[in-house]
Amino acid sequence: xxxxxxxxxxxxxxxxxxxxxxxxxxxxxxxxxxxxxxxxxxxxxxxxxxxxxxxxxxxxxxxxxxxxxxxxxxxxxxxxxxxxxxxxxxxxxxxxxxxxxxxxxxxxxxxxxxxxxxxxxxxxxxxxxxxxxxxxxxxxxxxxxxxxxxxxxxxxxxxxxxxxxxxxxxxxxxxxxxxxxxxxxxxxxxxxxxxxxxxxxxxxxxxxxxxxxxxxxxxxxxxxxxxxxxxxxxxxxxxxxxxxxxxxxxxxxxxxxxxxxxxxxxxxxxxxxxxxxxxxxxxxxxxxxxxxxxxxxxxxxxxxxxxxxxxxxxxxxxxxxxxxxxxxxxxxxxxxxxxxxxxxxxxxxxxxxxxxxxxxxxxxxxxxxxxx
Length: 372
What we know:
Elements: E1 6-11, H1 18-40, E2 46-51, H2 54-58, E3 66-69, H3 78-89, E4 94-98, H4 107-113, E5 123-126, E6 134-138, H5 144-148, H6 156-162, E7 167-170, H7 175-178, H8 184-192, H9 198-205, H10 212-222, E8 227-232, H11 236-245, E9 249-254, H12 264-267, H13 273-293, E10 296-300, H14 302-307, H15 314-321, H16 331-341, E11 347-350, H17 357-371
Parallel strand pairs: 1-2, 1-4, 2-3, 5-7, 8-9, 8-10, 10-11
Antiparallel strand pairs: 4-6, 5-6
């Protein structure tokens, strides 16, 4: 009988700001949905949850999981934490997942993704080679040095494929494989989606956030001849999905795909033509020009921030995404958020998911509403 993979799930807790805590609660709820799906169906043989939030894991009583609590006072490092779990539990066939990594992956897709995993030589399966949110890999113990070197999970698939030479399969791009929960915008997209796990649905239904950015974008997507701007780390797959699902005129401004996985963000080497344009015309001029070109926009603001050498704290990024600029401390991001919120057009602002998996998920929302 084939040995099943062991799920190693890293799920953080806490947050110093109400918006951060809301995102974290959603990620934890999605993690519980994923645990229940994989364990009840026997897709994995064992599950270990690593976390700093023992209050959350106390609520998981009844699930056959092992809890591995983060060491108090030790700075979190993704690669070293995951490598330590592999060593401690002697795992060879690993399925790693973060808390919000796969909210739209149903059981059938998981079974298909892991079909044949761990048979034969070294291999890996991930949702996205260029930005991994979850990844299964074998033999894990031999790959510990590569794993331990990773600052973030996004680069793990790329590192296993290109540094360790592991045969790595990436799932075809779709909402299920590309959408994850990282920012407030992702939560708004998920709340509109008809296919969610029960724990995540419950958390999102209690959010007191405006749906207008989502609804405004959906109105433009539904309109023949609507004009949509997609700005940031989008993809050919997202553009293709847009062309199949809508009759919109689309402007794509695609820059810095893979900036995290490649290390360009960490090295400070991200570049953006739009950031250079913004520098010339100012934030108000930038959004005035964007509003002249489009009726709605999906904006991955992290590319512009990275190109300016900025990576504000999560509380600032998340409040900016919700256009709560009065709560943003970083001066440029505060002006940027205010100008976006006053642009006179619906803008959904966040990270890469907004222009990739989130966009694909929005198109599924649109199709579901058309079907009634």
